[in-house]
């Protein structure tokens, strides 16, 4: 039909416009190879018509033909480029949607103004468990937000209203059936529409990772409990000594009190002092037993505001017999100045006891010099730091890097879990643990955990 119109109408533009229309239509309908075939065919028809009409004999017709050919060719190239870009865009969109589905990450965009305009991707709708056709609103998002985390969402909206450059938050969702989800959102301003800032970002469902972290945490807690019980078996003599010492003092004070009372003239002042000693040593025995029960009891981690030096002191009280049985000279330097930490007391005691036991065992073969153990606390860079330094044989540099790895041990009958558990406990408290050693001189184990202010509870 175009060929007939081209040969019957005395106009150069009309057939060219028809060819251009055909090229555009084929670009929208057919694949690139078919589109290219249609475009080449249109150029061929245009050229054939020009030759069949003898247009090459007339300079005006030649000029018109060249203009039409250039226009058709240019439109064809532009349409080809547009089609390739469109196909690439669709391919990238498919990749993007697949990646969002696999990573449980959705896109989100919003403007905080009187209309509170929000848009999101299909994956974001799936995360919040709304139908894809539902228009997202702030009310719908808050309806899915856990009541205890509504303040987090409100805080993000307030920061967006202030047009802050970076927004990031993590909060919980409560689904209609009671399920709890964890989502992590991040957004940055991208467009400015006459003073109205549009934020564009992503929302990720991190429920699986949070559940995995929780499971790992409980597994580590159980493993730490097993290690504590094992350590208590190894320290049975020290524990018995710590209990027997105040009990023996109670018996001695009781006998003294009896003698002071049975005298012809009872000395009531001395009897009272004996009773005070009985009460004091009974309390001491009760504290030791309570500490041992806490170490042996399997319970959830309880982080409270604790005085760091007090935790170290209580741990040393349990270790006095162990230290003396290894003929170790102990020196203590408490320089933490009543520094407080947000910690689980029992877990930190477990770390300290493990480090002291390791230090005592490391000096077991030292006979040419005194066996000295230095325990020091200090405050450095807003952290409470503990150092346990022995004068043992030291540790070779090539194994220092693997010392905290699970199942790695330098002891003949060791399990290789003590230091690994120590590291997990310290890292759980937001701290770090490290070691320095010189062969033939000794080893220093150190850990640091962040300080906290009394009254604050994180």
Question: How would you characterize this protein structure?
Answer:
With about 450 residues, the chain is of the alpha+beta class. About 55% of the residues lie in helices and about 20% in strands. It has helices at about 1-10, 15-30, 30-50, 60-105, 120-130, 140-145, 150-160, 205-235, 235-260, 270-295, 310-325, 345-360, 395-400, 420-430, and strands at about 105-110, 115-120, 165-175, 180-195, 195-205, 305, 330-335, 340-345, 370-380, 385-390, 430-440, 440-450. The strands form three sheets. A five-stranded antiparallel β-sheet has the order 2-1-5-4-3. It has a five-stranded mixed β-sheet with strand order 7-9-10-12-11.
